[in-house]
Amino acid sequence: MNYIIATLLLLLCSTTTLENAHGLSLQVPTAAGTSGREQALRDKAGQVWKAVAMAAPKERNDEILKATTGKIPSDLKGTYYVNGLASCQVFDRLVHPFEAHGFFKAITFPGNDNEEQDETTIRLKAKYVETPVYQLETRFKRPLFRGAMSSIADTSSFMGAILNALSPTQRETANLAVRPWANKLLVTADNCPFFRVDEDSLETLGVESFNGALAGQKMLAHTRVDPKRQRLITSSLEYDVFNQATIIRFSEFDQEGNLVSKTEHTQSPACVYHDWMITDNYYIVPSAAAVFDLSKLPDLLSGRCTATDIFAIDENAPASVLLIPRDPSKEVIEASMGDGRHGVVFHMGPCHEEEDGTVVLYPMVFQRYQFGGEMGFLLKEQKFDPIPWSVSNGGPLLEEWKVGMGSATNGKASMTSKLIHDVPSDMPTFHPNREGLSCRYMYSLCGIREEGWFHSTP
């Protein structure tokens, strides 16, 4: 139905001139009280993100790459799959980075067993993830789906609001992550079904629901693999706006892609999360309490605001974690910070259970967070200004959280925290065979530049 609406919307768009559709500018006006040096840093950050976010990548078909410096290890063999956003500029309009079209890459290292050959080459394939959203917008050369964080027209103009109101609020672009499972290669994003791509040609093969087990669910990009049980684990969210609640679902699949377990939990007040972890016994959800402002719902329905404008993180709520048992018959535990400290988590390092039952987590914690302006995206101005957003959120810091399960009563437990390092860090990774287990090492990007943590991480 969304695609039918988008096609009908095109007929209206074709006779309408959109305001502020051309002449996009990334220059940031000098703010009162800002020094020349600070403004120069801010301008440079805007220019960097103009290059990063608005670059138009080209598809590649088995292109040969050679090392320009150093040497490619001759024993490095295999294919590295990478998913990510293409360009935030969709024809004549900027969309939120989280809702840009997907651009999928395969980098193949063939190895070199011939000692007489003094140079090893690698091969690159790259292709857009051809979701129905991509196909329609490419065909008609304009954005047609506003999604949750973007708009297809100026929200402050009468005609722009009408066009936004008629456009679908689902923008399924599969632009974030990749997961091989059950002889299938999946590309994923938040609030989006899984899509399957061909591992050789990278052609998009369509939605993958594992024989209908995930049909209709709004999936999260992050998936987990239980190395002990050899299961793929997925998570999806559904918001019950009027009841201020979040419906959380987990599904587990065996190596053949068969559904072997599913769990559902309704959390009220509502919560939001992006990343999550597993242990032997629990799904670990860093649940940031959220509040829906129903007074703004008419603005959303009439195209005058985005979906992220009608909800916000509850800054009065303490940092908390949901421990949802993988055995559905057991009780869900909600652990909150013992000192009442607020915190918001979007990415997590490894989690594990200790012998006494204590659950240990390594989250990247924001002290505060506001949705909608990620990476400095300014919807109304149609530009990027990353430093103010970076500074306002403070940057995520790596902490150690411990949940004492022995003291849990009536579904509640207390949690303690310890700061690991004061350098902002994000995008953690660790050995894939250590999901749910203790790890010696974890790796992440770190932000060390004075102009803001986020500007450093690219």
UniProtKB/TrEMBL annotation:
One Gene Ontology MF term: carotenoid dioxygenase activity
Organism: Entomoneis paludosa
Signal peptide stretch: 1-23
Family of the protein in this entry: Belongs to the carotenoid oxygenase family.
Keyword Iron carried by entry: yes
Superkingdom of origin organism: Eukaryota
Cofactor binding, note field: Binds 1 Fe(2+) ion per subunit.
Bilayer-spanning residue ranges: none
Cofactor(s) needed for function: Fe(2+)
Protein name (record): Uncharacterized protein
Keyword Nucleus: no
